[in-house]
């Protein structure tokens, strides 16, 4: 297989953590001639280097003391043979015995006449480099790069041309997507080798990697090596688009009740409600708390299909309609807490966002009720951003971000809910530990209210799905489909730099969904 881009995949992509990657590597190496895997990695690297810098005449390779450096040295040999001016800086080699593959790669580079040195190129030389290669450290990094490694990272980050990271940007945890310290390579391209690793796609991963490419080195993990997580493909989002059969009526697609919208935050509940209606719900009813405090909205004139109802009607409505989907907390303020005991007991399908999550974090009774829902087979989807997740986990946002996958898994296991941990590389986790990483979207979504739109879209999409025995699987699928479409909306905006205003987001999401259906 030649290197391919992963973010636009139609299939889900299996992601493997460091321990699984190590096992896959060992099995693959055992069945091949010596150094074959590293030689093959060099071919993939050469192909991508040619593709990203077809006219490059000079390359600088920073090669570390392990097999990642070995991969870089194989590439150096190929580039040298192709007539390019190649310089290699060996970083951290002094006093270390190289692993056998890397020692072989170093000998090959030497034999090919590659210039090998231990110091960094000076500023004048760096200014002439057309392509930088980060082959310092690869998967399994656990410590912050320091000293000569940190200096080499700074030199790579100062280059004017493209920088390709071999397997992973140095300084990034491939397991978690967290920065290991201050020094992190900021690549324009990263070629994941052998396996795609979760840390490339979440947390600081996307920013450090640039464009993410993948070469499996013609190794196909055995069936006994399950994926650690999955990168969501377009096909998963397409599969959950509601089917609108010829004889369907609005009842087929269910009611969504939106509870939230305290004074000054009514917009949040309307954003969620509009998204729910565009995503597929049959009817959407908004129970905004501010309505009960004199700020009654007679109609949302931009979206007159929404039914604006008093909060006092919510509990009766969800007792009467045992199939209703409830989304609570968007713009909720403190008032939403009073609706939670009833919502947790009676809502058929429940999405909890923002202040509903904060209320649950404060109240052990509500937490117990949330767990009890799961045990009764009533599904819940939580949509925390990292700080909301931290409150629920009695932790800090920094700790959540330090290992997003573990935090999402723990929160799902603790609550019995499907958890959507938002942010760059949104994660969706089930109570049994399945995790999906969302590849779509970027910081154009980092504006107020976009999370309300996501929560509403999840509710609307869920409402339109037929009942199934596999309630958790359905909730997982709906959440990752909605996250995918939410991010994909970025591709339907005019520019790359200006934000996606929340009021316009749902319409862009509808366009993204239509493009899947076509
Ligand atoms: N053996 C093979 O044939 C293959 C190797 N591959 C390459 O091998 C890489 C993994 O190689 P290694 O396991 O040798 O690991 P690395 O090359 O990532 O690390 C090398 C050494 O540096 C040490 N180290 C890690 N972080 C450090 C830090 N912050 N400061 C100082 N030292 C640090 C590690 O303990 C390790 O001993 C992959 O990322 C990939 O590039 C792949 O190409 C697949 C094939
Ligand atoms: N850098 C980013 N890349 C991708 N998605 C992002 C990024 N920043 C924010 N988002 C998305 O935007 C939404 C913001 O939601 P949230 O933080 O709840 O904001 P709000 O409460 O104002 O709606 C989430 O879905 C989040 O995943
Ligand atoms: K690297």
Q: Would you give an account of this structure?
A:
- 54% of the residues are buried.
- This protein has 2 domains: 4-228, Rossmann fold (3-Layer(aba) Sandwich), CATH 3.40.50; 234-240 and 250-517, Ribokinase (UDP-N-acetylmuramoyl-L-alanine:D-glutamate ligase, 3-Layer(aba) Sandwich), CATH 3.40.1190.20.
- It is 40% helix and 15% strand.
- The chain has an 11-stranded mixed beta sheet with strand order 2-10-19-18-17-16-15-14-11-12-13, sandwiched between helices. Strands 1-9-8-7-6-3-4-5 form an 8-stranded mixed beta sheet, with helices on both faces.
- It has 19 helices and 19 strands.
- The chain is of the alpha/beta class and 518 residues long.
- The radius of gyration is 25 Å and the shape is elongated.
- α11 (340-346) runs parallel beside α13 and α14 packs across α16 (404-415).
- Bound molecules: ligand NAX, adenosine-5'-diphosphate and potassium ion.
Short characterization:
Its EC number is 4.2.1.136, 5.1.99.6. The chain is of the alpha/beta class. The protein has helices at residues 18-30, 36-52, 67-81, 100-111, 123-127, 147-157, 205-209, 234-239, 266-279, 314-320, 340-346, 354-362, 364-375, 386-392, 397-402, 404-415, 450-463, 471-488, 502-517, and strands at residues 4-5, 13-15, 58-63, 85-90, 115-117, 131-135, 163-166, 189-193, 211-215, 229-231, 255-260, 283-288, 307-309, 325-328, 349-352, 380-382, 418-421, 427-429, 435-437.
């Amino acid at each position: 297989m030649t290197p391919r881009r992963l973010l636009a995949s139609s299939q889900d992509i299996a992601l493997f953590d460091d321990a699984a990657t190590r096992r896959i590597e060992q099995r693959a190496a055992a069945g091949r001639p010596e150094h074959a895997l590293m030689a093959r990695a060099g071919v993939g690297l050469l192909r991508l280097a040619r593709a990203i810098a077809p006219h490059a005449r000079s390359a600088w390779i920073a090669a570390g003391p392990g097999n990642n450096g070995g991969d870089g040295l194989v590439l150096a040999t190929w580039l040298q043979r192709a007539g390019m001016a190649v310089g290699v800086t060996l970083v951290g080699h002094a006093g270390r015995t190289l692993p056998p593959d890397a020692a072989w790669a170093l000998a090959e580079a030497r034999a090919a006449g590659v210039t090998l040195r231990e110091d960094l190129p000076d500023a004048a030389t760096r200014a002439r480099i057309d392509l930088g290669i980060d082959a310092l450290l690869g998967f399994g990094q656990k410590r912050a790069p320091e000293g000569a490694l940190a200096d080499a990272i700074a030199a790579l980050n100062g280059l004017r041309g493209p920088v390709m990271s071999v397997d992973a940007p140095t300084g990034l945890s491939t397991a978690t997507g967290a920065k290991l310290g201050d020094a992190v390579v900021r690549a324009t391209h990263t070629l994941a080798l052998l396996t795609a690793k979760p840390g490339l796609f979440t947390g600081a991963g996307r920013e450090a990697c640039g464009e993410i490419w993948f070469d499996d080195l013609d190794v196909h993990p055995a069936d006994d090596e399950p994926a650690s997580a999955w990168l969501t493909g377009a096909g998963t989002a397409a599969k959950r688009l509601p089917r609108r059969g010829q004889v369907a009526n609005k009842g087929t697609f269910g009611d969504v009740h939106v509870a939230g919208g305290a004074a000054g935050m009514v917009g949040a509940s309307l954003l969620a409600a509009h998204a729910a209606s565009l995503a597929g719900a049959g009817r959407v009813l908004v129970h905004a708390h501010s309505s009960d405090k004199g700020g009654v909205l007679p109609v949302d004139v931009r979206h007159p299909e929404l039914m604006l109802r008093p909060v006092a009607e919510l509990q009766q409505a969800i007792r009467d309609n045992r199939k209703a989907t409830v989304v609570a907390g968007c713009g909720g303020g403190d008032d939403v807490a009073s609706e939670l005991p009833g919502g947790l007991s009676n809502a058929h399908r429940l999405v909890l966002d923002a202040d509903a999550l904060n209320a649950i974090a404060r109240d052990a009774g509500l937490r117990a009720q949330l767990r009890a829902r799961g045990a009764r087979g009533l599904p819940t989807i939580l949509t925390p951003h990292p700080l909301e997740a931290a409150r629920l986990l009695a932790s800090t946002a920094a700790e959540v971000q330090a290992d997003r996958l573990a935090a999402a898994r723990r929160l799902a296991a603790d609550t019995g809910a499907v958890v959507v941990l938002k942010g760059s590389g949104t994660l969706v986790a089930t109570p049994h530990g399945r995790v999906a990483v969302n590849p779509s979207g970027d910081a154009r979504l980092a504006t107020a209210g976009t999370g309300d739109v996501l929560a509403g879209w999840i509710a609307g999409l869920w409402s339109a799905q037929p009942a199934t025995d596999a309630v958790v699987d359905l909730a997982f699928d709906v959440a990752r489909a909605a996250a995918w479409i939410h991010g994909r909306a970025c591709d339907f905006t005019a520019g790359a730099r200006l934000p996606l205003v929340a009021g316009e987001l749902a319409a862009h999401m509808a366009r993204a969904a239509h493009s899947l259906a076509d």
